[in-house]
From TrEMBL:
The chain crosses the membrane at residues 213-231. Keywords: Cell membrane, Membrane, Transmembrane, Transmembrane helix. This is SURF1-like protein. CDD domains: SURF1 (cd06662). Pfam families: SURF1. Belongs to the SURF1 family. It is found in: Cell membrane; Membrane. InterPro entries: Surf1/Shy1, Surf1/Surf4. It comes from the Bacteria. It is a multi-pass membrane protein. It comes from Rubrivivax gelatinosus.
Length: 240
């Protein structure tokens, strides 16, 4: 093997070791993030309900309030209800139903009212769940804005069924400032029987799978390094 090929083999081995090591660290980072999420769910879920007057108005304040329980009073802006597509529950496709709740100060909150299964015959046929008129009280938990899924293009403004929901764009549509968070509505004494599912699966916090993946990637990195040392260093010396 020429010196040029030796350098290429060394570079390839280095890249394999670096890539496998990085993937192992990435899995450990995912495990740490889930552990932190689990700790936040446990600690903030045990706190007393957040007073409505303290609901965040900035991104930084909203992050500190995620997963806190609260009760909000306001009026539904039912004409701006949006159905987020491709949201699965128990392996079934469906929609997350979002409706803005207008608060007394003129701002609004994106409320995830629940999950609605998809019509298997006609995907775009959605049975709009009923909404109470007048002022209502909504019990729920503060959450981040709706999670984004991969999309080939932006959803048309004003469409009922969308892949993602951008709060800034939605705020311009409804003509009201939206708080930088969402509210996951929970069943309560005043919750109507609207056919929406609100008992959703818990966020996965099992980290053992990520630790297992990390161990595999680190093992691949160690194997690549050992094979190079054996075939290019130890074995030639033993022959000599």
């Amino acid at each position: 093997m020429t010196r040029h090929h030796e350098w290429l083999l060394l570079a390839a081995t280095f890249l394999v070791v670096a890539l496998c090591t990085r993937l192992g660290v990435w899995q450990l980072d995912r495990a740490a993030a889930k552990e932190a999420l689990h700790a936040a769910l446990a600690s903030r879920g045990a706190l007393p309900p957040l007073p409505a007057g303290q609901l965040a108005t900035t991104d930084q304040a909203a992050t500190a309030q995620h997963y806190r329980a609260t009760v909000l009073a306001g009026r539904w802006l039912g004409g701006h209800t949006v159905y987020l597509d491709n949201r699965q529950v128990d392996g079934r496709p469906g929609f997350f139903v979002f409706t803005p709740l207008l608060l007394a100060d003129g701002s609004a909150v994106a409320v995830q009212r629940g999950w609605l299964p998809r019509d298997f015959v006609e995907r775009t046929r959605v049975q709009a769940p009923p909404l109470a008129a007048g002022e209502v009280q909504i019990a729920g938990r503060v959450a981040p804005p709706p999670s984004r899924l991969f999309a080939f293009g932006a959803d048309p403004a004003g469409s009922r069924i969308r892949q993602n929901l951008d709060l800034a764009a939605w705020s311009a549509e409804i003509g009201r400032p939206l708080r930088p968070l969402s509210l996951l509505q929970q069943d309560g004494a005043q919750t109507p029987a609207d056919g929406l599912r609100r008992t959703l699966p818990q966020i996965e916090t099992d980290v053992s799978r990520h630790h297992g993946y990390a161990a595999q990637w680190f093992a691949f990195a160690a194997l690549a390094a050992l094979l190079y040392v054996w075939f290019r260093v130890v074995r030639p010396r033993r022959r000599r």
